[in-house]
Amino acid sequence: MGRGASLAGRTALLLRAPERAARTVEALAARGARTVLCPLIDFELPADTTELDAGVRRLVSGGYDWIVLTSITTIRALKQRAGQLGLELTVPAATRLAAVGEASARAARTEGLRVDFVPADQSAVGLVAELSLTGGERVFLPQADIAAETLAAGLNERGASCDVVVAYRTVDSPAAPHRRLTAAVDVGQGTRPADAEVWEPARLAGDLDQIDAVLFTSPSIARAFASVAGTGLAGIAVAIGESTRAELENLGFARIVTSAEPTPASMADAWESALRHGPEH
Fold first, then answer.
1. Signal peptide location in the record (predicted)?
2. Range of 35's domain?
3. FRET label pair with 160: which of 177, 194, 233, 246, CA 20 to 30 Å apart?
4. Tally of domains within the chain
């Protein structure tokens, strides 16, 4: 099983759909753990894509100095909408691309996009502080409908002119079929569905005693889980990063551990660490 089957006999709950879970399921299985899936949120294009379409067309025609990518889901949305417009998602040589973190950077490179900048502090705050700006740059900032204003406000304050566009909406699962994000971005985790048991959300409240750890991969997933199952989790809450950890704390979760990197292996490491030394909170 690898790693000495360090998580043998334990069960993790991953709040994702099977098509986005294969790498995590396999990483946990290599350490002996079983994974149950329960997709709570989904992603879809906005009902009105006028601003998104204008941004995509301006991007591929070289109308921006920078594009800032904040997530793999953003790349999926841009890829899908560009294809629907009959365009190839490209970033011209005169436009530089910044990614908030390495996960987004890897996904961009997989799609053939050149990545010019990733901040040392892989966060919105880090990107605002570290991005090289002289003032007056036009920045394309496609993001989720629920994204914080940190990036736009910070970059505008530094003299940039940001075109902030809703690239996708975060909705309860399942998304509307005609707007659902279906474009795949292969970042080394494959695009095949995971081989794991799938629960309906209604099972969460009654069957969480079967779960040893819940893997939270975004603040929005933390909120969705809390609304369905509450915050009195007996098992360990594994947060993929600092923003997710902060949201779990705000919601009132008590046993939290944070992965050092936004990867399945790092989340498994964090779970193992919590078992050896106890959670952070």
1. none
2. 3-40+185-277
3. 246
4. 2
